[in-house]
Amino acid sequence: MSDQRESYQPPAGGAGRSYAGASAASGTMHYLCAECGVKVAINKGEPIRCKECGHRILYKQRTKRMVQFEAR
Amino acid sequence: MATKKSSVAFNTLERENLFRNPPKDKSAYPALLAAVQPHIDSFNAITVDGGLLDLAREDIGIKSVFDGTNEKGSLGNKLSLRVDKIYIGKPRLSDHRDKTSLRREIFPSECRERHITYRGKLTVKLGLRINDGPWISQDRELGSIPVMVRSNRCHLENLAPYDLVEHKEESEELGGYFIVNGIEKLIRLLIVARRNHPMAIVRPSFAGRGKSYTQYGVQIRCVRPDQTSQTNVLHYLNDGNVTFRFSWRKNEYLIPVVMILKALIETNDREIFDGLLAAKDRENTFLTDRVELLLRTYKGYQLYTKKETLQHLGEKFRIVMGVASDMSDVDVGKEFLRKIVLVHLQDPRDKFRMMLFMIRKLYALVEGSCTQDNPDAVQHQEVLLGGFLYGMIIKERVEEYLESIVKEVRREVRRTTAFDFSNKEQRTRIFAKVNENIGSALEYFMSTGNLSSPSGLDLQQVSGFTVVAEKINFYRFISHFRMVHRGSFFAQLKTTTVRKLLPESWGFLCPVHTPDGSPCGLLNHLAHKCRITTTISDTSSIRKTLASLGVVSPATASLPSSATMCIQLDGCIIGWCSPKLARVVADTLRYWKVEGSHDIPLDLEIGYIPESRGGQYPGIYIFSQQARMIRPVKYLPLDKEDQIGPFEQPYMSVAVTPPEVVPGESTHVEFDPTNILSIIANMTPFSDFNQSPRNMYQCQMGKQAMGTPGTALRHRSDNKMYRLQTGQTPVVRSPLYNEYGLDNFPNGMNAIVAVISYTGYDMDDAMIMNKSAHERGFGHGTIYKTEKLGWAEEKRRGGPSSNNLFGFINQEEIEEQIDSIHEMGESTDEEKLLKKKAYQSLGIKQEWLETVDLDGLPKIGQLVKAGDAVAVYHEVPKESESRSRFPQNKVFTYKGSEDAYIEEVRLLGVEGNDNKPMQQISVKYRIPRSPNIGDKFSSRHGQKGVLSQKWPTVDMPFTESGMQPDIIINPHAFPSRMTIGMFVESLAGKAGALHGMAQDSTPFRFDEHHTAADYFGHQLKMAGYNYHGNEPMYSGITGEELHADIYIGLVYYQRLRHMVNDKYQVRTTGKISDLTHQPIKGRKKGGGIRVGEMERDSLLAHGTAFLLQDRLLNCSDYTQTWVCRECGSFLSTTPSIKKIGFESQVRCRRCAKPAAGFKAEGMVWEDGNGGQFVGGSNTTVIAVPYVLKYLDVELAAMGIAMKFNIAP
Amino acid sequence: MSTVGTLVFCSDCGNLLDSVTGTDRLECEMCGTVTKDPGNKTVTTQSAPSAFPSALRLKKSAVQSLATEDIQTEAEIKQTCPECGREKMWFYTLQLRSADEGATVFYRCECGYRFNTNN
């Protein structure tokens, strides 16, 4: 019960916005296939195709960074 | 027939269940599918076996070409071509471009997202024959044509809602439109003349056609089985002659009608005479004189037999018909008759009889015994369906394809005389040269709506066939499928008779739903119960049935003298009878039709026109073909449903409500009086209490409301989409609301509305909104804009092909260094400079990385402002270039002016090309649009208004129970507009909200004895409120009770899409037009607003002359320019060349004389060409508007000089 | 030989024969048959009753047609005339302004005073 009284801590590592996200090491981004919903890793310059079903439209995933909105 | 009437109840649980578990068998809203039925069924009719395309290719026939040159009289070998089959495939990936995918079908959602066309392959099986050999068939692919969604060529056909959701479509996807380049387009329904029915026309322009032409004519629009049409007109001449006119390939031709008669069958003058004049007409000298003249004039041609006449016709029309060279003249004549004269009939005898009928009708019109038929009445109109038009275009294109092959062969034969038909390679070469891409021609038609056809397809317009099926909200979308246009030809006419609403349109065209403005009365909507037939009914048993009733067949040699009424079936004479018998025949046929006996189809139209003195030409006209409007009414003798059409309705007695039935006279009664209204017009609550123009405005504005355009918004990439976040279901609604499932697409919000004169901010149609209501999300909307970024694939020949890629050119470098660079301090100027240089060395700007991810694409959810980077791309360096300079990263910026959030990013791959990297992305921006001052709102009664103030809740008047109104509307809005429906809705909404039930708002439910005020007043009383809907209220500002009770209730308000953010335009100085140096026009380009003539008048009226001068001169095109005082011209002044010690001055050329002789230094000046002059120094600067100089130049170009007097 | 009114048809082939040849014999161009000219016939032509309208007869007839101007279309309303004080006035409406606005109401009194209001 007592630990719930602590003030809210923003998630760590968010102070200086780290530009490299989950893809820091590899440099590849993951996208979702429009048809089967599977996560596909595409590098720069690669043709756009889903690995599983061969569909040609990929959706980008939402950013991991925090976005602030006004409640207006 | 709707035996189960829907109620108005909210049905919340059922709808929730339908959303969570979409049905797996069929749609829950069959009424929606019925609304789109004409479009889909007409498209299906093309492709079905034995459908229109099959009939069309039979009509095209055989085209032939010869390889001889006709010198020695021989034509050589003959190559015949014909079309054996036309296939339209379902949209699939082509086999040779893409060999690896498993699922080869292309679905509409993919086409929408990738902005491509939903099209299927068009294949044609050609038949070839050399001389009289066997037919060889060859398949040829003619491109891909756009295919209608949910038709039988679409993968979504007959899918249940559950499967539709699986395929990323709406659960209630209607279809009926095409997807062209990612945009949904549909072919509009057009109104054309009724088919196969001769109409008597009196038109003054007929008289201008030639010397003795009169204004009388009989016109018939004949339709072949493949739905292509040909119009034949008979003109009456002053002397009694009758001429037959037709149009072929956009040219008009006139033939004496007796020539046609004698070419059809072997006949003589006596037979024609007998056919034209019945027994009692022999006494009528008016007719006998004219027929005599008709026959005598024809004697001049000296063509007596059928063969002679056919030969004559064939000889004259050989070139025009474009037939093979080996056809004899007689055969060409027969082809002429088959293709042009009364094409809806096959038997020449039928054509002959019909022709005689038309001549007789023409004589009756001239004589005055019958009146003209009104072409604007819906009785003589039918609907041209989109699918049929599409089929007609495909037929024309295929025919053109065959003819182009013929032309190419001819050209080849002329070039190299050694052309062997049987050589396969030579044939293939010919095919390669011919343009086979019919698919792109149809795609052009769909995307532009322009029809480029050699024959014009017998239509009066060439453009405006397709419209974008806008998805602003659901009402707009569905009204696209129900709208019928008269034709853009009529939009330019000055006469207003086309636009008038005639009583004959009762039940077929909605009397209320038409736009105001230029398309008023031309663009109508079908009543919601009106259907359009798309199939031919089975009429094989009609002739038998008629014979059993005592009708005389036309084949009998001499008709009894009493048989004067003609009975026609689809423009073919099938019998004669006496007028008394005709009434009996019509009634009996109808009885059997409704009963279902004797194999008479129910949607047969039995048009009985009784004999009259000077009325319409009598007869029984039976119609069974496609494209007719029909609607259901109840047949009283049998108490069953009957389908009636507009042709028969004027002569029938249809009661509106059961109490109105007149026994002995009424034969039918309407099912519901609201059947005459369209879908949108039915949604207006209590429309019978409103002044009718207000209902028309609501029909307009309901389609502009911000609502829910669809449920599958995530998978759509429309250019702009409006969405209301807080949509509610209206408390006051009609049962049709549930029947059409409109709760899935909420269009507005319920608001507490007080009609009170309170703030003074609501004058002239403004309204006030409660500030707290606004803060709690009242009317909150969002706009989604989609932008495609990238490079379209362009193959440029010879030029360097730019190879661009999305992403940073030095992605790894950036990833490594970026964190450290970002951490660099900015405290001192030196550090700032270092940081800036560090970013520069990476080739990026600091602010880019706030909105763009490391893969070069935008971060989803991020806020972007005007000018922010959205995507980064770079040019792939060629091997030769060195990477010595800084890495070059280029950027796409956000071009809008408002702040937006990135909602979705789609990476679009290219079909077939597996090795090409990503060339296009599609970015969807989300722009929140909370209601602002200046945004437009409206109730459902044509009461539109602009939000003028967000009034704080503390200042709002409040009721005794403590409620404040959400919206305050000015009482002055009601007296002249007379929208009492809004008052009734207010009562009904209040009562419904208090009791927790939905209220039924269908019109025509209340009358003087059972009033709406009483009904709802009672409900209010039960709830404890005032019977009249008033409530004592207290002022929010002073706290005192207001002297009068205020009328307050619940009204459904819609937020319209006209928002001030899209309209405001501001400019101090900015871009200027090159020609006139005046500010340019246009909000997007930062232009100014015009101070026009009327504004000038009002400034003058106020006496503010300097203000006017300021607007028109100082802030517009004020310039100072040199002018010569002596000759008064702008154009002759020129600056002189600078010399040492002397400045450059401006001199007048005309006043100066060329220097000769003396060299006084200061006097001589040199012009730009080297000429030396003396004098002309009397120049000065004056301030003029720049357009004056432009005017001077333009007049000088015409040889007019302007001379200005400058003083002082 | 078949005669209908003034028209003579050849009995063999049904062709229309020339009416005036000068002689008594009519020869058919198609089949060559010779037909005897049946001689002159008198034909009575009656003009339609509406072909020669007489203004006097129209005035006396039971059915009269009125022009649009003659019809009294104004309605009566209980409105006090500002000038003479009469209780009743005639009024009619015309849609002079935009369709958005209401119609303009023109009031007319027996004394000749007219005035109009918008919305």
TrEMBL record, chain A:
Keywords: Metal-binding, Nucleus, Zinc
A Pfam family matched in the record: Zn_ribbon_RPAB4
Gene3D superfamilies documented for this protein: RNA polymerase ii, chain L
GO annotation, biological process: DNA-templated transcription
Domain of life, source organism: Eukaryota
Matching SMART domains: RPOLCX
Record's keyword annotation contains Acetylation: no
InterPro entries: RNAP_P/RPABC4, RPABC4, RPABC4/Spt4
A GO term, aspect molecular function: DNA-directed RNA polymerase activity
Region of interest (Disordered), residue spans: 1-21
Statement: the UniProt record of this protein carries the keyword Nucleus: yes
The family this protein is said to belong to: Belongs to the archaeal Rpo12/eukaryotic RPC10 RNA polymerase subunit family.
Entries under PANTHER family matching the protein: DNA-DIRECTED RNA POLYMERASES I, II, AND III, GEO11084P1
Protein name (record): Metallothionein-I gene transcription activator
Organism this protein belongs to: Morchella conica CCBAS932
From TrEMBL, chain B:
Subcellular location: Nucleus, Nucleolus
Family membership noted in the UniProt record: Belongs to the RNA polymerase beta chain family.
Major subcellular location class: nucleus
Record GO terms (molecular function): DNA binding; DNA-directed RNA polymerase activity; ribonucleoside binding; zinc ion binding
Catalytic activity: RNA(n) + a ribonucleoside 5'-triphosphate = RNA(n+1) + diphosphate
Domain called RNA polymerase Rpb2: residue spans: 194-383, 467-532, 1087-1203
Domain of life: Eukaryota
Start and end residues of each DNA-directed RNA polymerase subunit 2 hybrid-binding domain: 680-1085
Protein name as it appears in the record: DNA-directed RNA polymerase subunit beta
Nucleus in keyword set: yes
Enzyme class: transferase
Gene Ontology CC: DNA-directed RNA polymerase complex; nucleolus
Domain annotation RNA polymerase beta subunit protrusion: ranges: 35-420
Presence of keyword Phosphoprotein: no
Function: DNA-dependent RNA polymerase catalyzes the transcription of DNA into RNA using the four ribonucleoside triphosphates as substrates.
This protein's UniProt keywords: DNA-directed RNA polymerase, Metal-binding, Nucleotidyltransferase, Nucleus, Transcription, Transferase, Zinc, Zinc-finger
Gene Ontology BP term (one): DNA-templated transcription
EC number of the protein: 2.7.7.6
Residue intervals of the DNA-directed RNA polymerase I subunit RPA2 domain: 574-631
Classification via PANTHER family: DNA-DIRECTED RNA POLYMERASE I SUBUNIT 2 (PTHR20856)
TrEMBL record, chain C:
Domain TFIIS-type stretches: 77-116
InterPro entries noted in UniProt: DNA-dir_RNA_pol-M_15_CS (IPR019761), Rpa12/Rpb9/Rpc10/TFS (IPR012164), Zn_ribbon_RPA12_C (IPR034004), Znf_TFIIS (IPR001222)
Cellular compartments per GO CC: RNA polymerase I complex
Zinc finger region(s), C4-type: 10-31
Key words, A-Z: DNA-directed RNA polymerase, Metal-binding, Nucleus, Transcription, Zinc, Zinc-finger
Superkingdom as given in the UniProt entry: Eukaryota
Gene Ontology MF terms in the entry: DNA-directed RNA polymerase activity; nucleic acid binding; zinc ion binding
Single biological process term from Gene Ontology: termination of RNA polymerase I transcription
Main location: nucleus
Localization terms from the record: Nucleus, Nucleolus
Residues binding Zn(2+) 1: C10, C13, C28, C31
Binding site for Zn(2+) 2: C81, C84, C109, C111
Function: DNA-dependent RNA polymerase catalyzes the transcription of DNA into RNA using the four ribonucleoside triphosphates as substrates.
Family membership: Belongs to the archaeal rpoM/eukaryotic RPA12/RPB9/RPC11 RNA polymerase family.
NCBIfam families named in the record: LSD1
Protein name stated in the entry: DNA-directed RNA polymerase subunit
